């Protein structure tokens, strides 16, 4: 069979729903994640494929893209390579107007009806809104003024002051939290407020993602009894424009948890309260702060891990770090094949993980000591 040659004047164009991520480390390689937001499918490609795909904007011809490729890599792409590339992109729904594949198409099984999310008494999920993106857009319109630096900076400063003052009274707060577990009514009230803070945490991710041009796919409830949690899925998080937008989206939940505490902190600090209410508010402030900072721990699957991945420019950071460390410990020559950027990133994350786990262990030991030695 004679191979089909793509005309040199053909101007390939990506579909409107295609998103391409920034370069990300994945093991020793640098990859880009390409997502078809219409189908929800995502693919990894290397730097050379990305170079070609990112220039398929409908304005450049095959000949022009090939000339740029040759100038950048010092090697011209053969004409025979274009047809399989364009056919592959077209088959994945990534390309508009791509030539048809030259290989005979294989028969496909009939489409199966979508299965509803598995639900049971002990575990399951349920959507809360029919159009999560529209709901998030409406919330964004309401809170958008608070997302400006002029409004957000003073609020963040207030949360910093709050946390410093809480730290200075930490022994008192630990005692108040321990006492809370002897007051079922107050414990229920604090638990309810913390759950509400968690729900706002999830919505904050969606609103900030929307602020930066992202798309929220789903808002719902997920339960693994006895735990029932709200969730908000940002399906194009890795494709948000700019690292700052991705960091802001990942960190928005923890910031929301801290902002939620500000009015309670004001009441606890300034209002005359009876001993029970004072203790309950103190416990809420401590538990809410722990909740917020726990989400910033750089371990999967927490928000802090997503932020660390963005700062180090990697995908699958924990798995890649573990693989690199195994090679290094075994003195495998493959470890030397990692580029310097990857070696620095994985070594940095390994050190960060060790320091984080050590700090958590030390904090837990101090907490246990405080509870065991506290006067009855």
Given helix and strand content, the structural type is alpha+beta
Terminal Cα span: 88 Å
Strand content: 5-15%
Number of strands: 9
Count helical runs.
12
The succession of helices and strands, N to C, reads EEEEEHHHEEHHHHEEHHHHH
Protein name: M50 family metallopeptidase
Organism: Streptomyces pratisoli
Please provide a brief summary of the model.
This protein is of the alpha+beta class and 376 residues long. It has helices at 47-53, 62-73, 79-91, 132-143, 149-168, 170-180, 184-211, 243-270, 275-295, 303-312, 317-329, 340-373; strands at residues 13-14, 18-20, 24-26, 29-36, 41-45, 95-96, 123-127, 216-224, 227-234.
Give keywords:
single chain; 376 residues; alpha+beta; 3 domains; four-stranded antiparallel beta sheet; three-stranded antiparallel beta sheet; 56% helix; 12% strand; M50 family metallopeptidase
Can you characterise this structure?
This is M50 family metallopeptidase. It comes from Streptomyces pratisoli. With 376 residues, the protein is of the alpha+beta class. It has three domains: 13-96; 123-296, no CATH class; 300-376, no CATH class. Helix content is 56%, strand content 12%. The protein is built from twelve helices and nine strands. Strands 2, 3, 4 and 5 form a four-stranded antiparallel β-sheet that branches. Strand 3 (24-26) and strand 4 form a beta hairpin. Helix 7 (184-211) runs antiparallel to helix 8. The longest helix is centred in the C-terminal third of the chain and has 34 residues, at 340-373. It is elongated.
């Amino acid at each position: 069979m004679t191979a089909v040659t793509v005309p040199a004047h053909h101007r390939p164009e990506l579909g409107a729903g295609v998103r391409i991520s920034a370069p990300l480390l994945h093991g020793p390689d640098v990859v880009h994640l390409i997502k078809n937001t219409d189908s929800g499918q995502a693919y990894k490609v290397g730097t050379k494929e990305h170079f070609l795909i990112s220039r398929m904007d409908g304005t450049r011809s095959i000949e022009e893209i090939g000339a740029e490729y040759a100038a950048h890599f010092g090697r011209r792409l053969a004409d025979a390579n274009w047809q399989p590339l364009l056919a592959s992109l077209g088959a994945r729904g990534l390309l508009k107007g791509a030539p048809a594949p030259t290989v005979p198409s294989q028969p496909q099984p009939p489409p199966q009806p979508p299965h509803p999310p598995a639900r049971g008494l002990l575990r399951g999920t349920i959507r809360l809104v029919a159009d999560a993106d529209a709901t998030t857009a409406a919330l964004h319109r309401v809170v958008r003024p608070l997302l400006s630096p002029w409004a957000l900076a003073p609020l963040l400063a207030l949360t910093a002051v709050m946390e410093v003052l809480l730290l200075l009274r930490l022994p008192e707060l630990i005692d108040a939290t321990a006492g809370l577990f002897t007051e079922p009514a107050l414990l229920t009230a604090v638990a309810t407020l913390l759950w509400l803070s968690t729900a706002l945490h999830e919505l904050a991710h969606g609103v900030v993602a929307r602020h930066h041009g992202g798309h929220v796919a789903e808002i719902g409830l997920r339960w693994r009894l006895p735990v029932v949690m709200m969730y908000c899925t940002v399906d194009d998080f890795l494709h948000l424009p700019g690292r700052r937008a991705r960091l802001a989206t990942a960190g928005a939940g923890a910031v929301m948890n801290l902002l939620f505490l500000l009015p309670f902190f004001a009441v606890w600090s300034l209002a005359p309260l009876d001993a029970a209410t004072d203790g309950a508010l103190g416990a809420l402030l401590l538990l809410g702060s722990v909740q917020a900072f726990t989400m910033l721990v750089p371990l999967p699957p927490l928000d802090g891990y997503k932020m660390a991945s963005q700062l180090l420019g990697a995908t699958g950071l924990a798995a890649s770090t573990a693989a690199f460390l195994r090679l290094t410990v075994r003195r495998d020559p493959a470890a030397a094949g990692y580029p310097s950027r990857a070696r620095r990133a994985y070594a940095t994350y390994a050190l960060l993980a060790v320091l984080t786990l050590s700090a958590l262990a030390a904090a837990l030991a101090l907490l246990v000591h405080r509870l065991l030695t506290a006067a009855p």
